[in-house]
Amino acid sequence: MSPKITVELLRQLRQAMRNTKYIAEPIQAYIVPSGDAHQSEYIAPCDCRREFICGFNGSAGTAIVTEKHAAMWTDGRYFLQASQQMDNNWTLMKMGLKETLSQEDWLISVLPENSTVGVDPWIIAADQWKNMSKALASAGHSLVAVQDNLIDAIWMDRPTRPSTQLLTLGLGFTGLTWQDKMTALRSKMAERKISWFVATALDEIAWLFNLRGSDIEYNPVFFAYAIVGMNTIRLFVDIKRLAVPTVREHLQLDTPSKVELSIQTAPYESVFTELQAVCASLGPKEKVWISDKASCALMQVIAKAHRSPIPYTPLCLAKAVKNATEIQGMKMAHIKDAVALCELFAWLEKEIPKGTVTEISAADKAEELRSQQKDFVGLSFPSISSVGPNGAIIHYRPLPETNRTLSLNEIYLLDSGAQYIDGTTDVTRTMHFGSPSAYEKETFTYVLKGHIAVSAAIFPNGTKGHLLDSFARQALWDSGLDYLHGTGHGVGCFLNVHEGPCGISYKTFADEPLEAGMIVSDEPGYYEDGLFGIRIENVVLVVPAKPKYNYRNKGSLTFEPLTLVPIQAKMVNTDLLTQKEVSLGNIHSFKSALP
Amino acid sequence: MSPKITVELLRQLRQAMRNTKYIAEPIQAYIVPSGDAHQSEYIAPCDCRREFICGFNGSAGTAIVTEKHAAMWTDGRYFLQASQQMDNNWTLMKMGLKETLSQEDWLISVLPENSTVGVDPWIIAADQWKNMSKALASAGHSLVAVQDNLIDAIWMDRPTRPSTQLLTLGLGFTGLTWQDKMTALRSKMAERKISWFVATALDEIAWLFNLRGSDIEYNPVFFAYAIVGMNTIRLFVDIKRLAVPTVREHLQLDTPSKVELSIQTAPYESVFTELQAVCASLGPKEKVWISDKASCALMQVIAKAHRSPIPYTPLCLAKAVKNATEIQGMKMAHIKDAVALCELFAWLEKEIPKGTVTEISAADKAEELRSQQKDFVGLSFPSISSVGPNGAIIHYRPLPETNRTLSLNEIYLLDSGAQYIDGTTDVTRTMHFGSPSAYEKETFTYVLKGHIAVSAAIFPNGTKGHLLDSFARQALWDSGLDYLHGTGHGVGCFLNVHEGPCGISYKTFADEPLEAGMIVSDEPGYYEDGLFGIRIENVVLVVPAKPKYNYRNKGSLTFEPLTLVPIQAKMVNTDLLTQKEVSLGNIHSFKSALP
Lengths: 595, 595
Fold this sequence. Notes:
Two copies of one chain form a homodimer. Chain A has about 600 residues and is of the alpha+beta class. The first copy, chain A, is about 30% helix and about 20% strand.
C-alpha cells in the first residue's frame, strides 16, 4: 500500500479556499467530513471526498486543511491503514488517545485570530455543525457554510452521482403498501401536531416507498429526499428514473387513487428550494419534523420556531419493527444464506489442504455460492475474510498485499452477508480446519457462552438493548478477557445491514427499547493481537417470551435466531458449558457444536 | 394522617408575590423546590419550605403557586402520601404518568401572557434554572431570582439554621490530614489550569476538612462553603463554631504551618460577597471550578468566561475512593453493626411469638442495640421496618397509623444503617419468623441469585457500575419478574449513606467508572404489591480481582462484601441455586443461608 501523493491537490484546495468564485472572503480552514448529504454509513464514489483529498479510504475520518496544515482524524480501527495511505503532508490525528486534540481544539491551536472555517453544509450533520460552530465562536473564530464544495471544484475526474434502475417491491415482500405506510406516518404526525416531515435518510425513503436502488454498494438504496404533508407528498429524485412504466404504476404517478396520495415528483437537487417554499407558507404554530442527523443545509432552511428535530424519525421506528411478511422474508433469506455457507465450508474442508485457498478467494467463493441462491442481489457489506493474525483486526478486509492462505494451522474468521430481495443477512463463523489449541477452544467457548447468554436472555418489555450487553461479556470477564466493540446492531430487511434505533452495546447511545419484531445481531468476540480473532454472530429476531410469571402484566421478550449456519463443534470445549447452555444451544441451532 | 390546611398560608404567599418589599414588580408564579442551598438529599427543618407551604413531607417534590393555582409535583413513591397530606387547595401532579404536564408546560398553560415566575436562586440548582428559564422564555415568560425567600417571609415560627458542635477527626479515622487533601486538590487544579474551586456540597466540605457536624439528621455534616485558591483557603461557617480549642487547633487557625495552608474563616452568609470579590480580581484566562449542581445564586456570580462547571468535583471523586484507614474503619463499623443486628434478630425470634413487637418497636430496638456499640453516632437514614404488604412500599417508613405487628405469618423487611465515627452502614435483611410459602422462598432465592451475581461479578478496570445492573435482574427476568429501582449507590465513610459518583443502576446517569477502594451497595429486590417485599442488601468494597488472564494488562475488579449480617437460611430454596452460587455464597458470608 503506497500513500497518495497530495502536494498538488492541497495546493489547489488552498487556492480554492482563497478564490472569490466560491467564497466572498478567504477562509483559513476547510473541513472535509466523511459522509454524504444523507449521513449514509456507506457512500457512493462521488461522495468519497475525504479519500480524494488525503488518500485514506476507511469508513470513518474527517480531514481539515488550513493554510499551513493538513490533518485527518480517525479511530483506532484505522490508525495503521491511515498511516499507510496518507503521505507526509498529512498529520494523522489518533482519536481516542489522550494526547490527541479534538478537531475544535486543534483548529483553535493552529488558526490565526478571528479566522473563518468553511464546510459544505450539505455533508455536515446539523448536530455536528452546532457543536463545531459553538466551540469556534468561543475562541473568536467563525464557522461558515461554503455552498460550492471545494473538493468537487478541484476533483477533475469526479464520478457522477449514480442513478441506478429502481426496483419496485410488491406486498409479497413488504407486507404493507407505501400508501399504508404513508397513512401510518401521517397519523403519527397528527398525534404530535406536526404539519410536515422531511425524510433525508436513504433507507427510510426506500422503505417508505417500497422501492430499492443500487446507488450505493451493499445498500439497496437510491439518492432521494421526500417531504410529506398531511395532503401532499413530494419525492425528489433523478426524474429519468421515473420514466419506467412499472415505477410509474407502483407510485401511481399517472393515476393517483386519492388526492392526498398523489406524489409530486421533482429533481433531487430541488429539495432545497421546495423546502424553502414549504417553510415560507407555514402558519405560526406549524412544526416540521426532521432528523437531527439531517444536513445542516436542510435543517437551517427551517426557522427555529418551526423546527422539531428528532433523534429517530417515525419511519426509522416503524421500519425497525418488521411485519409478518418481512419476518417471513428474513427467514427465507437466512435459509438460503445458510445453504450457501454450508456449501462453502464443505468446499473449504476439501480445498484448504491443497494450500490454494486465500482470504480473497474464500470470500469470492462465498459470494459465488450466495449468488446462486434465489433473489440474490449482492453482498450486504465487504466480507471480512481473515486468517490467523488478520482475524484480530476487527474491520479487516483482505487486500492483495495482506492476503493470507487458509491452512490447517490457523483460525479462519468469516464475517459476511448478502442482500436478497426477501431479506438481508449478516453472519460470522470462526473455524479451525486442523486442530485448534486448548487456548483457542477455551476463548471460543467463552465467546459462545456470551453469545448464548444474549440469545437466550429473557427480559421485560421496554428493556433497551444496552442493558443486555454485559451478558455477552460475563464469561470472558470471569477469565479476565473482553472485546472492544459492541455486541449487536439493528439489521434492515433488504435494506442497510446496520440500522437504528436499537442495538446491544456498552456504549449508552440513545437506543430505543427492544420490541417484538425488531431484528438485531448478537456478535460477541475475542481478539488476540497478532494471533487470531474469534467472533460468533447470528441475526436474531425479538419475540415474545412466556416465562412462569408476568410482573405487572408487562410481558417479556427473548430472541429467536434467524441465522441457521452451524457452529463448528471442534472449536468448543464442552467442559466449560453448563447443562443449561448445552440445552439452550440445542434449541438455538448450535447443535453441531455440541456433544 | 390529615391534610395541612393551607388557605391562609397561600393567601399570605400570594400577597408576598405582589409585595414590593421583596420584588420590584409582582410575580405571577413562585416556585418552591425541595432542597437546600447545597442540594442536600436530606435537609434541616429550617429548609423544609415545600413541606411548610403544602404539607407534603416526602423527600422529593416541587410546589408552584400562581395567583389562582397551587400544584405540587412528586413521583410514584409518594402519590398516596402526598394526596393525604395536602388539602384541596393543591393539585397533585403525578410525575411519570403520561397525562401529567411538566412544571414548565403547566406554567405555560396557566400563566397569562408575559408572566414573571420567581424562585429563590439559592435553592434552585444552576442546571435546573437553565432549563426552566429557557422553557419559559420560549413561551414569552421570564424566570427571575427573588433574593428574599417568600416562604421564609411568611413562616412565622421557622426553625433557626442548626449550628451543632463540630467533631474533629484525626488521622486514625481519616488516613489523610486535611492539609494532604488540600494539596491533592490543588494539584488537580494545577493539572487542569484552574485558579479557584468553590465547594458547595456539605459532605465534600466535611470530608476535605476532616470535620463532622450534626446539622442535618442522619448526615454528619455542617452548613458551610469553601473557596480554595492556589494560596488561599476560605471557609464560610457560623463563626461561633470555631471558638472551640480543638477545632481551632485542628484547622491550625492560630498557628498555620504554611501560608498556603492558612485558613481564612468568614460567616456562612458572606460566601456570596467573598466569591464576588474573588471573581472581580480574576485574570482574563483564569477559570473557576464549581459543581453544576451548585445553586444558581453562586453559579451566576462567576462570569461565563471564567466558569468551569463540572458534574463531579475533584473532592467528590477523591472522597469516593476510600483509603486503607477508611476501609479499615468501614470494616470495623460493619462488624459492630452485624453484632447489633444479630442481637436484634435473636431478640425478634424470642419476642415475635408474644405478638408485642411492631414495625416501630423493632426499629427502635435496632437503634438501641446499635447505640450500644462503640463510637455510635446515630442512624444513617430513617429505618425501613416493614411487615407484609408494607414491605412492598419501597421507601416505607413506619408511622403510628400504618404500624403493623410482626408475626409468624408475614415477611419482615428491615433496611437500616448507622453512623459510627469509623464508618457508615446500610443493610437490608428480609426474614420470615414462621414458615415462608414456596412462592416467597422462590422469589427470595431469585433476589439472592441476583445479589450474588453482582457481588461475585468480575469486570475490567474502567467498567461503569450501570453495566452490572442486569446481572442483578437476570434470575428474576428469567421468571418474568423485576424490580423498579436501581441496584446500588455509593456509600460514604462516616458521611452520607448515598454519595456519588458511582452506582449500579439501569438508569444511565453519568456514573464514573468503578475503582478499587470505592464502596457501593448491592441491593436487588422483589415487591408483590399488597403482599410482601423482599430486598437483600450488602455494602461491598471494590477490590482488584485476579482472574486467569489479564487482557491488555487492563486488570480486573470484583467486590468484597463488608456487611456481615447472615442471610436467613429458611428463606432460600436451595434447589434453585447452582453449585457455583452455593460456593460463592459460602465465600460471601451467606453461609447461614445455605445447606
